[in-house]
Specification:
Length: about 170
Amino acid sequence: MKTRVFVLVIIFGIVACENKTSMNQNEKDKVIEEVESVLSSYAGGWISLDVNKAFKEYFDTSEDFKYIGVDGTIMNYEDFFNVAKDVFNSYEKAELEFNEKVINVVDEDFVVVSLNFTGSFISPGSKVTFPNCGSTLILNKIGQDWKVIHFHESVQESTFFETKGDFLKD
């Protein structure tokens, strides 16, 4: 498994320097459209606090999946999902907005997505906001389905802030 992650990091480095895919633009656009659908489902699950839609439907749930959290912790899928579930269950509302999205099509079955986003979790009496977060998702087409096989989030925890008040009233 460590070898596979190492190989993915090496591949990512090579791709970042030069992407020489033989795909034409129409083929790339089709892949981008498919991946946009995955990202839309992810965002929809996040906003609705539906942990299954956000983190199960399009995620590789095998032992090969790895998540690197904002504190540098490396987790397998089960640990990651349980943490996400606990967070989602702690709030009543969420917000998510992609500020910037870059989809790098490596080939027809492999994509690297870089995201910059702003989000918040809302409960009665408080709103926890995290602006300008970064995420990297590596997706692999397994069979006919796109699956996130690696997910890395980064944010300076000092940028998190909590505001007191009643944010659930419209």
